[in-house]
Amino acid sequence: MTRRIAVLSVGAVLLLLFGVLGTTVPVPYVAQVPGPTYNTLGDIEGEPIIAVQGRERNDAEGNLNLTTVGVSRGGLSLVQAVRGWFDDEVAVVPEETVYPPDRSEEETRRVNREAFVTSEQAAESVALGELGFPQKVVVRDVPEASPSEGRLEEGDALEAVAGQPVPDSQVLAEVLTDIPPGTPVTVDFTRLGQPGTATVTTRAADEREGSLLGVSVLDQPSAPFDVDIQVADVGGPSAGLMLTLGILDLVGEEDLTGGKVVAGTGTIKLDRTVGPIGGIALKMVAAREIGAELFLVPADNCAEAAAAPDTGVPMARVATLDDALEALADLRAGRAPESC
Description:
By secondary structure, the chain is of the alpha+beta class. The chain folds into 2 domains: 29-132 and 226-333, Ribosomal Protein S5, domain 2 (2-Layer Sandwich); 135-221, PDZ domain (Pdz3 Domain), CATH 2.30.42.10. It has 9 helices and 22 strands. The protein has a 6-stranded mixed beta sheet with strand order 8-2-6-18-21-22. Strands 9, 10, 11, 12, 13 and 16 form a 6-stranded antiparallel beta sheet that branches. The radius of gyration is 26 Å and the shape is globular.
């Protein structure tokens, strides 16, 4: 064998080896891609994303789609990572930024799901406040074996405890501080617009004197109907804005979309401000794929959105719920909303 043939043979073997390694050996990166979108005015497998009990939903037309980002499971191969780096519709990011090394994948999903549930609660509170419903102490959860189990229900608005009005959760805690554990107390509440009364035997408080009803509560506007949000397999807080708009469209007096297809993203806070999210460029691609006529962008994501490849979908810069409502009004009227 000549030296030339030997060198070529070794090179071919090395090239083959690198090719095999490049397609089989994982690297510590994951790929993020445009995820599915969900019309908050619509259904998933026949079940409404936003269900309303105690009041008929509006026959809303158009779309108010929340957008998501899909994430690959497990490490990418070197070839996949390199290919993703050159693809405008893929974001290759360190695996630890999505799946922290000190947390199991199951724990990560749980944390993300809890963040989504928190965004649901904020969306409901902000939407009902926008509709003018009064602030109440609302029951969010009645755990099993709680002294209130079978007596109070999620969504009940507490009016008084032991004859004392409880306009907010702080006053509720103050009233219960003066009641010894094991005391039967009368709880006046409103459920789906109807008044009710229950007798609850209190239990000892863990972190203060007095007692507890054994329920978790939230200060939020209370309406004579219940809103239930169901979107499986979605985590994180970024759907808050679109859920808020969906509730407003379904139970408010105004058609927000005018029959048009709108997509968006952004957290919602109780002060009505819209917060930034991750993956804005990928969510813009997802909006394009559903034929969105407008994409609502959190103000703090505008610089990133403006620098991303153009998807052809007009953007609206929103810093507050009022900004989002104004952008939708502009869309209905044929005006161009303020962009990024």
